[in-house]
Q: What sequence folds into this?
């Protein structure tokens, strides 16, 4: 979705909508953390109770009473789990609680935009400008987990795309720098294939390989920003 659509959407919002937006101050991350903590605690309590009761041999009647209590507790745990699941689902599916704009993907504190859905190709500088206009920059890939995340998204596209990332050697031939000014090798061990004088911009392909391409070539791109 482009920014004009977002503005239109914002303009369509009633004051009630705006009020609701303010009430959502629980981010999915916080909810996931709380839910996980509650679930894990509940599970451990159930387990501890179960272990304590089953470990000590008791007479038949006491044992039966305790089993009944245990079953009740288990049902309570299951009910809580069910409620939490519903709450979590509601919170994560509410766009007002979303950490990223529409069409952007959240991963580990960042929002990613894969332009593939736009059906539009841009030169490297145009891609960088697009990201900049959307408060982001061409993706700087910092570790293999992030590379795997990006590769996973790329695999979901029907045709494996050629994606501009924030990597260029236009300042000094062969000296590849990420958009944040760091050297290509600073974060992880990466190299750019096919480097030559006229290929100063890097595109990302399958398997995490980076290829040098003419910055004037048209392609898709990945923007990234802090969520
Ligand atoms: C990108 O660079 C080309 C020249 O290489 C220029 O013609 C074009 O206007 C630039 N585009 C943007 C969006 O800056």
A:
């Amino acid at each position: 979705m482009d920014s004009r659509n977002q503005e239109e959407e914002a303009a369509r919002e009633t004051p009630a909508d705006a009020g609701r937006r303010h009430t959502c101050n629980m981010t999915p991350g916080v909810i996931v953390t709380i839910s996980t903590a509650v679930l894990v605690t509940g599970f451990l309590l159930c387990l501890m109770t179960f272990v304590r009761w089953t470990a000590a041999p008791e007479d038949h009647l006491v044992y039966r009473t305790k089993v009944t209590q245990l079953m009740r507790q288990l049902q309570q745990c299951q009910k809580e789990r069910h409620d939490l699941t519903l709450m979590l689902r509601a919170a994560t599916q509410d766009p007002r609680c979303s950490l990223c704009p529409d069409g952007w993907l959240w991963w580990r504190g960042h929002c990613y935009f894969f332009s593939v859905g736009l059906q539009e190709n841009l030169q490297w500088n145009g891609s960088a400008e697009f990201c900049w206009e959307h408060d982001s920059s061409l993706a700087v890939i910092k570790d293999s987990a992030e590379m795997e995340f990006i590769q996973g998204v790329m695999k979901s596209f029907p045709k494996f795309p050629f994606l501009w990332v924030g990597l260029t050697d236009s300042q000094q031939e062969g000296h590849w720098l990420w958009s944040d000014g760091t050297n290509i090798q600073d974060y992880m061990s990466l190299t750019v294939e096919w480097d030559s004088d006229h290929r100063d911009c890097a595109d990302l392909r399958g398997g995490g390989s980076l290829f040098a391409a003419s910055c004037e070539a048209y392609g898709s791109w990945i923007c990234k920003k802090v969520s």
Q: What stands out?
A: The first strand starts at residue 105 and ends at 107. Residues 105 and 136 are 13 Å apart (CA to CA).
